[in-house]
Amino acid sequence: MAAARIEKYHRHQINQDWSLKDEEGIELGQRILPLQRVGIYAPGGKAFYPSTLLMAAIPAKIAGVKGIIIVTPVKDGKINPLVAAAADICGVNRIFKIGGAQAIAALAYGTKSIPQVDKIVGPGNAYVAATKKLVFGQVGIDMIAGPSEILIIADKTANASFAAADMLSQAEHDEMAVAVLFTTSEAFAQKVAKEIDEQMKTLERKKIIKSSLKNFGAIIITKDLIHAVELANDFAPEHLELMVENPAEILKRVQNAGSVFLGSYTPEALSDYLAGGNHILPTSGTARFSSPLGVYDFVKRMSVSSFTPEALDKLASPTSRFAKLEGLDAHANSVLVRNK
Which domain holds residue 131? Predict the structure, then answer.
């Protein structure tokens, strides 16, 4: 079910080639071409995430990438069976048992056994993120993924137990995960704090959660919802939940977020697995200028131009003048030599 929903969503992201006749004898266009080979990092430190593999491999397949390679850490020399099952569902059969910085380096430069790729995608720990940053330029990368984040904006109509549960769901990722609540109601803030303490008692990863919330968790009371959204846009969170009376209206004011969840019955966890949208998202404020992973990350655009002799004649003179203004007379000559 998860794979089918992810595929359905991402098929709407397919772009097509296009061309136009700008003037008589001039044709301009763009080709959309899949990358030839990509590497997917499937995390496996504190936990294994087969869902992340689905989120990366399915858009790559839809884009038309022929060579998809997976690298993943292993325990006791064995690939996690859930990761193997996810790879099989996606039709990917090249999995290398290697993780960490060395896995990223192997994908970027190639080894005797691991082919060099054109782009590396998928989140990892701080060492993985740092290495992706270092090899960018040798290969493409999707993003520099930091710790997971959730920001909730809630008013007095929200359910405190829901908000608490969603904060806990992010905090359990790791000790550096960020879980923040903006609310207009002091009474609601107090209820959420109590719910967090109560719900945490039954959770298996409570040690990680406590550390995360102590260092990177917060409940902040704002003067109104507009103020809360302004702060959220500055924060640019990975996940933004709008637990308010009219979330669609508040959404209009949101400029910076990786993924937005409307209303009290759209928990972020749905998007991690079954909603359909991608859960590989910009973190650490990078939602100001970047987007969720998608089909568009696995293609490149190629510009195409075609001029007839008559069309060249129309633009030869202004083109050569522009080239000479920049001091590039060989550029000017390459046009004029065809215009004699």
Answer: 2-143+293-301
